[in-house]
Amino acid sequence: VRKAGSAIRLGMMPADGIGREVLPCAQRVLQNTPGAPKFEFLQLAAGFEHFQKTGSALPDETIRALKEECDGAMFGSVSSPSHKVEGYSSPIVRLRKELDLYANIRPVIGVRGTKDDEKWVDTVIVRENTECLYVKSETSESTPEGQVARAIRQISEKASTRIGRKAFEVALARQSMREKTGATTSGNAATAKVTVCHKSNVLSVTDGLFRTSVRAVYEKDARSAGGPGRYANVTMDEQLVDSMVYRLFREPHVFDVVVAPNLYGDIISDGAAALVGSLGVVASVNAGDTFFMGEPVHGSAPDIAGQNKANPIASIRSAALLLEYMGYPEPALKIYKAVDDVLREGKYLTPDLHGSATTTQCEEAILKALGA
Ligand code: ATP
Ligand code: MG
């Protein structure tokens, strides 16, 4: 449901550190992509520095504007204080709640030509974002043998079913992107596949429920009356989380879409990011049913902030992901391709990829590759 007029209105929250350098790059790329819709950008306050100035990491006005005026959003990066700060809580966590962004979708894509192409990584991790151990319900009691701490891990049929459905939709969307590019964006499996990640051999109740709920999405679809189901061309398999990590490192090319509960998803998606050379190239989108927020995976990188050294690719790819999920796959593909061209050419890479280009030079190379 479009809220703005003729232009698509995006709420931009650069927040802290390098977020302020890389989010504007993503904005310029969106503005200059041939065939992209017209955008309006609304700059919105958020972040740790904003908290230090005003006592709020996410002003009510930002949430109101996102809900009432914006069609989508981009988030930069937020500094996390290393010690507990009274009154501070992460704006990202709250944004996910307020906007019901229950899925974190993270494509992990290798740089072609830099690794054995047949072991090329092109995987999407779909992480459940609202429950599991991160419901943060912990207790501690003292016993004669010392302290005992416990955490509650919540897995629900409702949340597992909707993340399952999201994963199959992601698999379909990827398949259609592959068809549009004429070949494969990946050297990987030509057919769409969803791998369900769990540990139900040990945690048969909680992971068991996750597993059966996700499987049920697929099985119900297969049984649906009136012709082949929506996911008829998607296959499904499953992997225990420990062997998943092993295989992800040994043979990442076997995975297409991986769906996982919150904690496993968190861990394997950071692990997967390590396969592709730099946090500076890994994008994500936080997805609900109708609202999407692009967000680079990296943090605020205080060690390089303010030096025009940060890699803008994670943010630029996040902007493309946002476009894709908002229903504009063609201009999104142009951005992915421009980024791939610049990565492959290797002349305008930032220091995290062992180049010497500045943030600005890398962005300019991408704009040029776009034909902007
Ligand atoms: P935060 O507390 O905000 O998470 P952090 O110190 O954990 O900060 P990250 O942003 O997670 O920082 O980055 C970890 C490392 O990766 C840092 O050394 C950082 O410089 C590097 N890095 C992260 N993002 C980028 C980027 N876009 N370009 C270049 N280097 C990056
Ligand atoms: Mg960090």
TrEMBL record:
**Superkingdom of the source?**
Eukaryota
Molecular function (Gene Ontology), one example:
isocitrate dehydrogenase (NAD+) activity
One cellular-component annotation, GO: mitochondrion
Q: Give the keywords, sorted.
A: Magnesium
Q: Does the keyword Magnesium apply?
A: yes
On whether Magnesium is a keyword of this UniProt record, the answer is yes
Which Pfam families did the record assign? Iso_dh (PF00180)
InterPro entries linked to this entry: IsoCit/isopropylmalate_DH_CS (IPR019818), IsoPropMal-DH-like_dom (IPR024084)
Q: Which SMART domains match?
A: Iso_dh
In what residue span(s) does the Isopropylmalate dehydrogenase-like domain sit?
9-366
Its BP terms in the Gene Ontology are: isocitrate metabolic process; lysine biosynthetic process; tricarboxylic acid cycle
Q: Which family does it belong to?
A: Belongs to the isocitrate and isopropylmalate dehydrogenases family.
This protein's name: Isocitrate/isopropylmalate dehydrogenase
